[in-house]
Amino acid sequence: MEPYDDREARWLSSDELAAWRAVTLLVARLPAALDQQLQRDSYLSVVEYHVLVGLAEAPDRRIRMSVLAALAGLELSRLSHLVKRLERRGLVYREPDPANGRYTLAVLTDEGARCLAAAAPGHVAEVRRLVVDVLAPEDLTAFGAIATTLNERLDECGEDQP
Amino acid sequence: MEPYDDREARWLSSDELAAWRAVTLLVARLPAALDQQLQRDSYLSVVEYHVLVGLAEAPDRRIRMSVLAALAGLELSRLSHLVKRLERRGLVYREPDPANGRYTLAVLTDEGARCLAAAAPGHVAEVRRLVVDVLAPEDLTAFGAIATTLNERLDECGEDQP
């Protein structure tokens, strides 16, 4: 890093700004674009889909809410609202963690597992159509590596922790 | 693309899945992380910030709502709600487009320009801290190029159009 006077803003260079603007636009658009197909075909948002995936992959289809929040990249309060909606639809239920009653487990129901299985092929096709099949394999790998670096940075900074 | 039977899902390979999961996690977390600083210091969300930037850069600080929606990567209905909130705070107002009364212009007020100018240094510092200064310059460039490719794909697919 160059030395700088922290009373002065270190504005982005024109190259940095161009890259950053493309990224922010993508980050704004991509979830909405993926939501369109999922909502239309499966009445799920992308975030709800990822929560169901997190549950489906957990041992015995149950997981602590705080762990699920980290997996889905959500604050715990936002996850709680989302899980309430899924609970009303019979896709998930919550129960106290038998190992420690101060924690709450979210549990995927059979209906939730069916809903996810029905939603998955269409969602994966859309992920291919809008992202995976659009990029050369090495660019997808690079994209994943960059995202991993930035996720680690967010972990370090304690951002987005419940 | 390989030929495939469209009755069968083309699941992601393990490499594709790993990359895609890192990307979806980042896309979920990054706006929330950037929101934390902006909300705390400037009472703005990242999306509101980008809307103010779009207005500040428009000639005479005014722009058609539909053009602003595309710039900010928002559906028009979502932009309308957001602009109403900014209007209540005196940062923006709307008026019919004198060139064509069927269109609505959003206009940045002096107070809106001051709010943006006050918010910008802190936001840019956070963008550096969480993204720009974390990546090697060539990785930031690659990230921008990948995002541009995917934004063009979304344009082609007519996704996210108002």
Automatic annotation (TrEMBL), chains A, B:
Pfam families: MarR_2. Residues 16-152 form the HTH marR-type domain. SMART domains: HTH_MARR. This is MarR family winged helix-turn-helix transcriptional regulator. It comes from Kutzneria chonburiensis.
